[in-house]
Amino acid sequence: MNSSNSISKQKLKWRIFNDKLFSIVMMTLAFVSALPLLSILFQLVKKGYKQIRLNFFIEVAPDTMQAMMAKANHEIIPGGIANGIVGTLIIVGLASLIAIPLGLICGIYLSETSKGKMANAVRLVVDMLQGIPSIVLGVIAYIWIVKPVTSGFSALAGSVALSIMMLPSIIRSTEETLKMIPSTLKEAALSLGVPYHRTIFKVLLPTGMSGISTGIILGISRIAGETAPLMLTALGSSAINLDITQPSSAIPLLVWEFYNDPNLIDLIWGASLILLLIIFLLNLGAKAIVKKWKVQY
Amino acid sequence: MKSEKLFQYFLKSGGILILMMAIGIVATLIMGSIPTFKEFGFKFIFSSNWNPTEGRESYGALPFIIGTILTSVLALIMTFPFAFSIALFLGEYFKEGRMASILKSMIDLLAGIPSVVYGLWGFYTIKPWIVELGLNAQGFGIFTSSLVLAIMIIPYASSLSAEVINMVPANLKEAAYSLGATRFEVVKNVIIPNAGSGIFAGYILAFGRAIGETMAVTMLIGNSNQIPSNLFDLGNTMASLIANQFGEAEGLKYTSLVAMGLLLFIITGILNLAGKMIMKKITA
């Protein structure tokens, strides 16, 4: 009797020990995975903050010779990433112009058509589009735009690749947000004699604004840092270029160029820091919208 | 009434456009790779010879398929303990509270870092570390890129698993607790059997991500066109080969790279649909 009691007590202790051990290991591993983030941020800020002056935003990237001279004289490398900033604004802006209307229409269509072969096929395709690697979209935009339309690398081709990339997140967030809106709201509008399309534009879309705009912002933040598809489409340019049928630079493309040029390598940190800041700000914006404008039903 | 019908057609046209876009993507990839498959047939997939020298041109995708699968599987294995811990942390142990929101924001930020920045970090932080440990003389290679890939896919693998773990019915867990189970035993005997397929689906989706990842891998894998002989060897993946060689490619080389894109598209497409299918079954 006595011995079996002590055995079961021992077993209990063992079980409790196991439980404690497991939760400690789990918590440690969970927070260890955040270390790379801190390491990346630390590295970028430490090496990049010196680069960030006014000139960094208004001057174009220097060429190798300029950078080499400055380095030889122990000066800070001149120039900035203005060509990349303008390029990113144009390429991402144009991609949004293509993707947002189409994504909204498609999202509304899916939320209004819950059943049917066609709607299910569209859902399947949206899932599929979401999984396509960005580099493959670069190949697609090259074949669709670079060769036949602009007969050369162009900002437009980059925008097309990125717009396909951001479509799924816009469609999905639109569909899911609109589906969450109680049908009574829509029925009330319709019963007052409001036409169907006005009901959607004046009642449903404004009600779902926070969810939809969050999806759009997250879509933009997802494409802003994309490099691979732009290498095959926009290519890069050493000057500021406003013509969308010409090659254009972008901040991630500049990071890649700096990485490949030993003379420009010092600029890489400032450029990456700016890119990361833009993306983090977009993410924060999306979160703020969710918090502030969340409609309660 | 008429305008209502018209508007419905307008909405439908958006759906049709998306369908056409998808069909267009598939058709473009297939048409673009026809010359390669005509020339090499299935040898394109099983040959390990990638030789762009004129006159002796031969293109085989095997080294890149192997490189892709090796890096992604290795990344998945390395990511598992961390992603699973995060999922348990957010889905079971600390669903709310300050700790959870800190961890959640950190994971979100991790997901937001561009691939090219991960590549830089891998180059300047992980690579010297690999050299120091003596794993590889130059620090490049399959292992280095897998390590960085593993960190990159943590958010994808963990967020879905956390959701599924969160969905395990409370009464099941409470029943186990009332029988005297410890939390660890609940995790082992209730949560994992219940959420297992969802966790699996999350990893499939993360696997698809890893396979298509380009920039960070390009910067770290060493870009060798040989089949890697061990995990620390140099290698190349399908995505990074396209990124490296597409720019100056013409003729057969160009169509072979498009064919590589088609293979990549098929593999990631199957993985993605499988993952989504499992998820749908669980949530339905």
UniProtKB/TrEMBL annotation, chain A:
Xref: PROSITE patterns: ABC_TM1
Pfam families per UniProt: BPD_transp_1 (PF00528)
GO cellular component entries: plasma membrane
Gene Ontology terms, MF aspect: phosphate transmembrane transporter activity
Transmembrane segments: 21-45, 85-110, 122-145, 151-171, 203-224, 267-286
SUPFAM superfamilies: MetI-like (SSF161098)
Compartments, record wording: Cell membrane
Protein name in the entry: Phosphate transport system permease protein PstA
Natural source organism: Ancylomarina salipaludis
Organism lineage: Bacteria, Pseudomonadati, Bacteroidota, Bacteroidia, Marinilabiliales
Gene: pstA
Automatic annotation (TrEMBL), chain B:
Membrane topology type: Multi-pass membrane protein
An annotated GO BP: phosphate ion transport
Keyword terms: Cell membrane, Membrane, Phosphate transport, Transmembrane, Transmembrane helix, Transport
Family annotation (CDD domains): TM_PBP2
Pfam families in UniProt: BPD_transp_1 (PF00528)
Gene Ontology cellular component terms for the protein in this record: plasma membrane
Chain ranges passing through the membrane: 9-34, 64-90, 102-124, 136-157, 191-211, 254-274
UniProt keyword Transmembrane helix, yes or no: yes
GO molecular function: phosphate transmembrane transporter activity
Record localization: Cell membrane
ABC transmembrane type-1 domain boundaries: 65-275
Xref: PROSITE patterns: ABC_TM1
InterPro entries: MetI-like (IPR000515), MetI-like_sf (IPR035906), Phosphate_PstC (IPR011864), Phosphate_Transport_Permease (IPR051124)
Record has Cell membrane as a keyword: yes
Annotated family: Belongs to the binding-protein-dependent transport system permease family. CysTW subfamily.
NCBIfam families reported for this sequence: phosphate_pstC (TIGR02138)
PANTHER family: PHOSPHATE TRANSPORT SYSTEM PERMEASE PROTEIN PST, PHOSPHATE TRANSPORT SYSTEM PERMEASE PROTEIN PSTC
Function according to Swiss-Prot or TrEMBL: Part of the binding-protein-dependent transport system for phosphate; probably responsible for the translocation of the substrate across the membrane.
Name of the protein this chain belongs to: Phosphate transport system permease protein
Source species of the chain: Ancylomarina salipaludis
